[in-house]
Amino acid sequence: MTGSDRLASLADVIPVPRIDPEQRAYWQGTTREQLLLTSCNSCGEVIWHPRPFCPSCSSADVSWMPASGSGVIYSYTIVRVGAEAEYARQMPYVLAYVELDEGPRVLTNVVGVTEEDLSIGLPVRAVFHHGRGFALTRFSAAPDRTS
Amino acid sequence: MRARPKAYLAGIYEHPERDIAHSSAAAVHAQVALGALADAGLTLADVDAYFCAQDAPGFGGVSMAGYLGLQTRYMDTSEHGGAAPLSHLGHAAEAITAGRCQVALITLGGLARQQLKAGHRPSSAHRADGPEGPFELPYGPSVAGLYALAARRHMYEFGTTSRQLAEIRVAASVHAQHNPAAVFQTPVCVDDVVESPMVADPLHRLDCCVVTDGGGALVVVSPTVARDLDRACVAVLGHGEAPKHTGTGRVDLTYTGARWSGPVAFEQAGLTPTDIDYAGIYDSFTITVLEALEDLGFCGKGEGGAFVMDGGLQAPHGRLPFNTDGGGLCNNHPGNRGGVTKVIEAVRQLREEAHPAVQVPDCEFALVHGTGGVLGTRMSSVTVLLGREGP
What we know:
heterodimer; A: mainly beta; CATH 2.40.50.840; 5-stranded mixed beta barrel; 3-stranded antiparallel sheet; globular; B: alpha/beta; Peroxisomal Thiolase, Chain A, domain 1; 2 domains; 18% strand
């Protein structure tokens, strides 16, 4: 193990996502530091990633729902070798699934933590890293929500 | 009681090289096609069905069909990543059973080693234009990282350890010492694996497969054709395939699509896991094997760690001899797609043509299982059951 390695802050690593027309509201939400999910008005399913219909009940009646931005780490890894593109010079960095309070598990990065801080179940809170016209939703430890 | 098999594997060929600077991908596909047809005692003129995936260069299967001079009655370019040849094998058997064709050629080939030398790493994004792309790709999902997420969660839920995962690499390396074409031919021990550099915690370098050039081909024929061949033919007994994805966002990283593909294949074949003498299990990473073993029913969920210990996977006398060519971990992972080599070694076992040191005695039934894509997000799982009974 190489526990003394500094984990990347990723604050200036903001790859530009493809913004599909039906997801403009999602990306606009991120510029206001709001994480939007789609929620089915027919069956109540909270859907990630966003899409204009509900795979659970086939309804097209869905709407945007702000997430609390809170969750816990479902799983994580520290990528030390083999990252691509913008991440190639950022290793080691944390790749993780965060389980949101609303249910979905989102692929993301956990930042502002040390290797010793990381554990499955760690409470985390959304942070937004801003690009031009969008922000990436990453997570940092939420010390006020001790597990 | 099982029905009589409707399709047979008559020819196999694995490209002997792992670093191919002298051929295009198309030429590799052609070389393995000719090799598998020669193994069966057939020629290109006999082929009436062609199967390939996106590793084949050009327009679907049409460019390669043209290059090979095939005039086919049936073509299938289903994309299942590294599991594609297993899907093609199942589809070919169905097409033959339906009377649509008699001699199906399946090719796989790629130059991943050359691409790595040119600075292109294996990518987790098979197609960046997927609907999930904007919500995953900006976060740096490395291939090993996405498998590591599954390994970490499996460890958390079931107490699986790095030393248990290492046993899978150890078994592959013990087998690979008998394969002169394998990339890594020196046996390793558990300590070697867990002391190798961390790639993406908790996966070490030796938990990861090789990156190689190469390819392989399969020839599947009808019973009528098989009866006229001199070569030992292997029966295709069952096939199941299933995608596993993130759905509406509740991904569970502790299982794979094998929990759905396996039962379908076993039911069609009229077999159960206890009938299996040899298993070819896709081994992109050690965790890929461990989760598949559980999902296929060789042990209970969460019991994979105990199952692989004490030489459980080592031929010829382990609980379930696996990947006796050394697998993707030590032998070959051509074009970052390891499905075809799993089928090829299973056929060698059923023909009793594996290396004597790893030949499973009285090998009657084999399972091959492919995991295309990645454990951390979405995959295609394909299971095929094979038997040694002739036409």
